[in-house]
Amino acid sequence: MFSDALPLASSYADLLATDGIVRGLIGPREVPRLWDRHLLNCAVVTDAVPQGASVADIGSGAGLPGLVMAIRRPDVHVTLIEPLLRRTSFLEEVVGVLELKNVRIRRGRAEELHGVATFDVVTSRAVAPLDRLSRWSLPLVRSGGLFLAMKGSSAEDEVQAARTAIVKGGGLFLDVLELGGEFLDPPVRVVKIAKK
Length: 196
Hints:
Strands 3-2-1-4-5-7-6 form a 7-stranded mixed β-sheet, with helices on both faces. It starts with 5 loop residues before the first helix and ends with a strand. It is 36% helix and 26% strand.
């Protein structure tokens, strides 16, 4: 999955399992599940990201999925958008330790970048219901770009509830992708929306 980037991914996992727990970014019970539930779970989303894309990860938290995407795909340029100082401090330290040249960190809310920046792909994981997430994300997606929202078993229901917000934001619902099914149970479910 990570091939040449496996040492970087392992270093990131170590940072999550130590500093991430101390700083309250992940719970201690998550350590045994770091790889399957977090790292591999996020890594498979990069399969839906075009070559050389600019990616914004909204509500990055501990860097999931943004840092994983940057580690697995050095061709993409990832901007981590996170409002909380303790989280952005952790992200800055991780980016420094791992020497990731394809990552920028923006402390703030997604809405603060509306009209200021656009990206080829905007993604997020466990941030908010899809209707609210669409209002925050779609203004950051360039025309012809993608909004990839990691969602669980309720993805279709969230799409139905968010239809108005998606259309109002210039989005076009394309599909609910199931990624990583060959080695993850359950597979990762990603709502794929194109920006008109």
